[in-house]
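Page 37, continued from 36.
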């Protein structure tokens, strides 16, 4: 079976930046719905017409992936608003930010604690790969027809590239892992 709209494809991949630094390796096949919201459009387009065993290499510019880095999604918040166990690298949903945080922080963003200081916390609502051109080497490990349930929800249930629907900040606002 060839890859087309409304099918499920099982992929493995290696994701690197343009300098060749390995960012992610998927060694065990994971299923994604083509024609849903599991994969970026450029990836879906590159896979069209291929079958099991095919390999595809492509480069995703920031606007085709996780978007450009947006400095307006970086917030300095009072350290006292957060629990003492807060650590760098933790993530907080915008809707779960403590009362007293900047009202301009989008409620539908996922914030990463990037720095901790005695008096303040730096929260970054950008995806960790925002602003980075990516190279992706894919291998098609399987192709099957999508179920009605998968088509109805727009996903094979994986969510590697899009764990949440994109929000008003434009293209590339989904999340990887």
């Amino acid at each position: 079976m060839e890859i087309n709209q409304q099918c499920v494809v099982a992929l493995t991949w290696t994701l690197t930046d343009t300098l060749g630094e390995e960012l992610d390796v998927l060694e065990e096949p994971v299923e994604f719905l083509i024609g849903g919201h599991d994969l970026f459009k450029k990836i879906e387009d590159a896979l069209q017409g291929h079958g099991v065993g095919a390999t595809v290499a492509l480069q995703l510019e920031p606007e085709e992936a996780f978007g450009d880095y947006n400095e307006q999604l970086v917030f300095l918040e009072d350290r006292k608003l957060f629990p003492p166990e807060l650590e760098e690298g933790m993530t907080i949903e915008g809707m779960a930010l403590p009362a007293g945080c900047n009202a301009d922080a989008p409620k539908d963003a996922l914030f990463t604690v990037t720095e901790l200081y005695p008096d303040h916390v730096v929260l970054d609502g950008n995806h960790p790969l925002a602003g980075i051109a990516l190279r992706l080497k894919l291998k098609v490990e399987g192709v099957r027809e999508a179920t009605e349930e998968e088509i109805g929800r727009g996903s094979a249930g994986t969510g590697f590239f899009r764990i949440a629907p994109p929000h008003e900040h434009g293209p590339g606002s989904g999340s990887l892992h």
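The helical segments are 41-47, 148-153. Flag for discussion at group meeting. The chain is about 5% helix and 35% strand.
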